[in-house]
Amino acid sequence: MDFSPQTLLPIMAKAAYFIAAVLFILGIKRMASPVTARKGIIQAGIGMVLATVATFGVTGAHNIWWILGGLALGIIPAWISGKRVAMTSMPQMVALYNGMGGGSAAAIGAVELLKYSTPGHPRPATSVIVLAIIGALIGSVSMTGSIIAWAKLDGVLDKRFNFAGQNFVNFAVLGASLVFGAMLLFVGLEVRWVVQFFSLALLFGILMTLPIGGADMPVVISLFNALTGLAVGFEGYVLQNEALIIAGTVVGAAGTLLTQLMAKAMNRPISGVLFTKFGGGGAATEIAGSQKPIEADDAASLLYMADSIIIVPGYGMAVAQAQHKIWELSKQLIARDKSVKFAIHPVAGRMPGHMNVLLAEAGVPYDIITDMDEINAEFPTCDVAIVIGANDVVNPAAKTDKSSPIYGMPILDVVKAKQTIVIKRGKGTGFAGIENALFYADNTKMLFADGQEAANKLIAGLKAMDSGGGH
Ligand code: NAP
Questions:
Q1: Is 278 in the pocket of ligand 1 (CB under 6 A)?
Q2: Does the beta carbon of 212 lie inside 6 Å of ligand 1?
Q3: Which of 179, 319, 351, 465 has minimal CB crowding within 10 Å?
Q4: C-beta atoms surrounding 54 within 10 Å
Q5: 95, 217 contact by CB (below 8 A)
Q6: Whose CA is nearest to atom 18 of ligand 1?
Q7: CA of 438 to the centre of ligand 1 (A)
Q8: How far is the CA of 351 from the centre of ligand 1 (A)?
């Protein structure tokens, strides 16, 4: 037996890749529930560190300072920005990190294709060239597309760029990039074609994302995330690196499922996201009647008299950072023998699981947090529904108004509750930019205030009620 480091190290590295792959898969499984998600993230992170270290065993520690410099360049800003980022800015950060992943896959493709293009370099197997090209194309599109998505979500780029024949131009650019890719494959590997192929692929990523509205960006980011995974998987095949293949495939599959789920929950086909406009475009039917304001003390007395209460959080709760106060209010209600449940719509907020994360942060127990499908049947028997900063996800137009841009999106049936208190600052619309008939319903009262301030006043109102100070 040969026990030299040259023989042992690659074997150990392959074993470490296997362990890393198991950690990725277990980690992602744990992310399915808020109870275990934190552990899942740490587990997958350990897998990633293991795979990174193991790579030195496969390749040897060449160019060590360049590699360590590169790692530091990635780790330090990511650590700092990850620590500082506000929950509401998470989608932007995900977009940016995702773009980096796509860029890395594209960079691997570029280095490999340029290497094959150097005179005298033996031509690799056709499958390797094909996957290097496809991976590089997808990675490039994902990188520039994600950067545009980040800019739109962050408000740096607040416009949608549309012009006649846009889809045609976009496909022409994609087609031209594919032509250069085909030339690399069929005519010969030449540096100039590599450069032209990449320039066009990067340009296509920008062009395809520019016309998409900020409203659709979270779905687009999820789509780019899936594409980045695929690109990493393909480039893993090119490098014959099992860890990259597995990690890429897992991300690609998970990203594809997430994209489909989000698109379904928003009733937006992926083709609709990519090629048509959303929000503000549809002329929704006018709503008759008026919104009926309520003072916090009166709202507190409604709660005081209720037995069952369902709280529906939305994006505004995240903006107001009111989750702690809302939980405090819930505890006050539970202490007065009331049944309190939280109803979570799958796309409430601005990213998947947004509300679950906030409620978990505030310490709300998971057994009173319910999904849309579970809770919808309970609204007709619910005494008071409190809607805090949610709008589109409780808009009955999604079921009743065919002209509405959100028609067909599943919603929480708050409109069926006996009484509803809606907490929002004013008459601002939600993400889809449309009016909400729930706010005009006879049994809906509007508590106009910032989410946190309203929760504080409701708590004070309840306490005053105990001492007989209420209405
Ligand atoms: P929403 O429709 O965006 O409505 C949020 C409401 O919160 C607004 O009407 C706003 O009204 C209110 N608000 C804002 N700041 C507030 C504050 N400080 N205090 C109290 N209220 C405040 O939210 P949603 O019902 O959660 O719906 C989510 C939307 O995002 C859906 O259309 C969904 O399709 C979309 N979306 C979600 C995801 C995801 O993954 N979760 C991804 C993409 C898109 P005022 O201005 O009057 O206060």
A1: no
A2: no
A3: 179
A4: 24
A5: yes
A6: 320
A7: 15
A8: 11
pLDDT tens, residue by residue, 405-452: 788 888 999 999 999 999 999 999 998 888 999 999 999 999 999 999
Which of 470, 400, 410 has its CA nearest to residue 435?
400
Is residue 373 annotated as part of the catalytic site, yes or no? no
**Averaged pLDDT of the chain:** 90
For residue 391, the CA-to-ligand 1 centroid distance in Å is 6
**For residue range 350-373, what is the model confidence (pLDDT) as tens digits?**
887 889 888 988 999 999 999 999
Place of tokens 């698109």: 263
How many A from CA of 146 to the centre of ligand 1?
Answer: 23
> What is the DSSP secondary-structure string of 157-182?
S------TTHHHHHHHHHHHHHHHHH
Q: Indicate whether 139 pLDDT > 50.
A: yes
In angstroms, the CA 261 to CA 351 distance is 12
Q: How many other CB atoms are found less than 10 A from the CB of residue 76?
A: 10
In terms of C-beta density within 10 A (0-12 exposed, 13-18 middle, 19 or more buried), how is residue 324 classed? Answer: middle
Q: Is the CB of residue 211 below 6 angstroms from any atom belonging to ligand 1? A: no
Q: What letter does residue 270 receive in the DSSP assignment?
A: H
> DSSP class of residue 293?
B
CB 109 within 8 A of CB 156: no
CB 216 within 8 A of CB 160: no
Higher confidence at residue 38 or residue 102?
A: 102
Arithmetic mean of pLDDT, 120-148: 94
For residue 445 the two structure tokens come to 């009262």
Task: Give the Cα separation of 69 and 67 in Å (integer).
Answer: 5
Mean pLDDT of the region 369-385:
96
pLDDT of residue 278: 53
Q: Which residues, 6 or more positions from 373, have their beta carbon under 8 angstroms from its beta carbon?
A: none
Q: What is the largest CA-CA distance in the chain?
A: 91
pTM over 0.70: yes
Q: Which residues pair with 104 in a beta bridge?
A: none
H-run or E-run covering 313: strand 308-313
Assess contact for 325 and 452: CB atoms under 8 A. yes
Helical H segments across 118-241, by residue range: 126-153, 166-186, 191-209, 217-239
Q: Check if 109 has its Cβ closer than 6 Å to any atom of ligand 1.
A: no
Out of 216, 392, 401, 413, pick the active-site residue. Answer: 392
Residues 383-403, mean pLDDT to the nearest whole number: 94
Q: Among residues 242, 248, 246, 235, which one has the least CA distance to residue 57?
A: 242
From the CB of 450, is ligand 1 less than 6 Å away?
A: yes
Distance (Å, whole) CA 135 – CA 235 = 6
